[in-house]
Design goal:
single chain, five-stranded antiparallel β-sheet, about 20% helix, Septum_form, Septum formation-related domain-containing protein, transmembrane, transmembrane helix
């Protein structure tokens, strides 16, 4: 199986058949997809035999703030064999699937309180979808089309599965498992929308527990470097710090003690309240992480942090991430290296200013999940 999600689904009207009226009257492919999703039960279909490699991968885009491509792995299925009633073909909403790292083609069903890499939100039988795109004779749609399907449908199915309590800016992202070309050619049409947590390089991390019972906040360990998209200069997913990245985390702050636990029912603290709470905390944490205030100042980076949206708060998110980065041309400057050792900013060794500029220890929000705007008082990034 395979997955991808970096493209947006087209909602173009289909060409009307003779006598069908205007294009405006003819239902679009997207409309028919939505109708089918609403009127047909989501069920499993055991398809025909599969040959070659089965590949599962995952990518994610969270409110246009995180994106990237996942790792792929494979496992052989004998030529001419029938698809067995295995963990994937039998999986339903609420099931949790696990596989060995790098071998996602052989998933097994496990209890959700055990480590797993995928929580199924919806099992979709592609043969019920109208328009012929999933018919027996249809060509394999390809990664870009499956990406569009994921982008259009999985977030809605995931939100429905979680009864509205999904933090779209949190650590669990909608993903799609779909047939490889070899499987498709032998009749496989099953799809699975579900939830993953992305790790280094976009790979699927192990999760313990059901998402509905977990704090959905981003919870990167101190020192984690988050990659950068070179075109958009936005953050992606965790990478090795020797690779280009947007920022480096210094720690996670649990705001439940101040504003109420996820089960407390307390109101959402606005962004201003969260900033007021985090303003004295994240700078101290950055200095401790770097080994002293002077070492932090030599990095020329800014102290920054995330906040929780109201949607995220209602979903149970309670943790903020403190991190170090530098705004640059509407996004992040490109960092290479661990900030505690040798750091390059836009390809150059940073030159510390003679004194800390105004705003150095103030909240300096730049695009990070959950996405906030740059502070004009920030030190500009070195020209790259």
């Amino acid at each position: 199986m395979t997955s991808d999600d970096e493209f947006t689904m087209s909602d173009e009207p289909d060409t009307a058949a003779p006598g069908a009226g205007t294009a405006e009257q003819a239902p679009s492919r997207l409309t028919r997809w939505r109708t089918a999703m609403a009127t047909h039960p989501l069920r499993v279909l055991l398809a025909a035999g599969v040959a070659g490699a089965v590949v599962i991968g995952a990518t994610a885009v969270v409110t246009n703030a995180i994106d990237g491509s996942g790792q792929v792995g494979g496992t052989k299925i004998g030529v001419g064999e029938r698809v067995a009633q295995d963990a994937f073909t039998q999986s339903q909403a609420g099931d949790c699937l696990q596989w060995e790292e790098g071998k996602p083609g052989a998933p097994s069903k496990v209890a959700c309180d055990e480590p797993h890499r995928f929580e199924v939100a919806a099992a979709v039988d592609g043969t019920i979808l109208p328009g012929g795109e999933f018919s027996e004779s249809a060509p394999w749609p390809g990664p870009e089309r499956f990406s569009a399907i994921r982008t259009e449908h999985c977030p809605t199915l995931v939100t429905s599965y979680l009864q509205g309590r999904h933090d779209p800016q949190g650590r669990f992202v909608p993903s799609l498992i779909y047939p490889s070309k070899a499987q498709w050619e032998r009749g496989q049409r099953d799809l699975r929308c579900g939830l993953i947590e992305q790790g280094i390089g976009g790979s699927e991390m192990e999760i313990v527990g059901k998402v509905a019972d977990l704090d959905q906040s981003q919870q990167w360990a101190p020192g984690t470097c988050i990659g950068i998209n070179p075109q958009t200069r936005q953050a992606t997913f965790p990478v090795n710090c020797a690779e280009p990245h947007a920022f480096q985390t210094t720690g996670v702050i649990d705001m439940s003690a101040r504003f109420g636990a996820r089960t407390s029912g307390k109101r959402w603290p606005g962004i201003d309240e969260q900033n007021k709470f985090l303003t004295p905390i994240c700078p101290v944490q950055a200095h401790r992480f770097m080994g002293g205030k002077r070492k932090f100042e030599k990095s020329t980076l800014n102290v920054q942090w995330s906040t929780i949206s109201e949607i995220g708060w209602l979903a149970g998110s309670r943790k903020a991430v403190c991190y170090m980065g530098l705004p640059h041309r509407g996004g992040f400057a490109t960092l290479v290296g661990d900030a505690r050792q040798q750091l390059l900013i836009n390809g150059k060794i940073p030159t510390p200013p003679p004194a800390a500029p105004p705003g150095r220890a103030l909240p300096t929000p730049v695009p990070l999940p959950p996405g906030i705007a740059p502070n004009p008082a920030e030190q500009p990034a070195p020209a790259g």
